[in-house]
Amino acid sequence: MTPSLNMPGCLRRMASRWPNDYFLFPKLKEHLSGTRFSSESDVKTPAKNWLNGQGRDFYQAWLNTLVLRSDICLNRCGDYVEK
Fold this sequence. Notes:
It contains 4 helices and no strands. It has helices spanning 9-17, 24-32, 40-53, 56-75. The longest helix has 20 residues, at 56-75.
C-alpha cells in the first residue's frame, strides 16, 4: 500500500509538475558528454557509478537548492517563477 499525504492544493500542484531531480541531470549529462551508448542498459552502469561517486557536498548543494526553490514556489502557491 502506498502512503498518501494530505496537503494543500498548491502543494499538490507543485509536487505534480516539479521534478525533484532537476539538479542532477545537467551534471550527469556533462559527465557522460562525448560518450556514445548503443542502448539504455549501456548507460545505466556509468550513470549509477557517477551518482554513487558524488560526495556529501554535492547532494547537500542539491538539497539546499531544492529547499530554496520549494520555498519560493510555496510562497507563490505554485505560480511560475522566473529565474
